[in-house]
Amino acid sequence: MGEYLVSHPGVDAVSFTGSFDTGKRLEGICGAIHRMIVTEMGGKNAIIVMDDADLDLAVEGAIWGGFGTTGQRCTAASRIVVHRKVYRKFVEKFRTAASRLKLGDGLQKETDVGPVVNESQFNKILKYVKIGKNEGAKLILGGKACRKGNCSKGYFIEPTLFIDVTPEMRIAREEIFGPVVSVIKAEDLEEAIRIVNRTPYGLSSSIYAQNVNSSAIAERDLEAGIVYINASTIGAEIQLPFGGIKHSGYGRKEAGGRGGALDTYSRWKVIYRDFSGRLQKAQLDK
After folding, report:
1. Is 40 a catalytic residue?
2. Which residue, 226, 244, 247, is CA-closest to 20?
């Protein structure tokens, strides 16, 4: 159905949100028929925590970024890259905060983490937890389905936290789209940025640091369409263009006034008009 719609002669432009594999296919179809397409696809977003960061603030951002909306957002922060000097301290604070999250009905005010969207995604997330264990990552929280009380009636997965993750592991490179967060140690800012950029995706990113030079370097060098300073990755501010690079997005960015809506959903046409009539008269005289 999707391929039929995007190739239909009655369609002038295409806006797609979904997986990279599907988006790549649609980009190929639209490219062959010279039809404009904007794709907003996946993300493997990361938060950098530097040694001078406000750790309580960074933990709050990591909790919201990793487990907010059960990690089911393209902007979710599924990787936390932490400076070696504060790595253990951050992990301790992060684990304690994540262990206090309450699972349950997402419509209830007291709920922190709701269910995943369906059985297929539920099984996919648990499969990635198994992959992480097999790769040698250390599971220190969650990692299994929650079957307690009302959670037994839905697809609930406990907030899951892996530490001692390396950048080469699949759980650090592939989009899981669930409440699974990997913590990676970095020697310094330069290595942290390399780790963040070491995935095919480039949607959202964040750095927690007090040093303005560190944040300025991150702004410049992070390969992502969005960079947050001392805030989480999970926002979607409509006043500015939204979208990523690499496998996270293609085409003009949507939202954000002129930079988004007008350029995405408009087509430029240049019109020349001579009101004097002299050109036509001159041509007739010839």
Report:
1. yes
2. 247
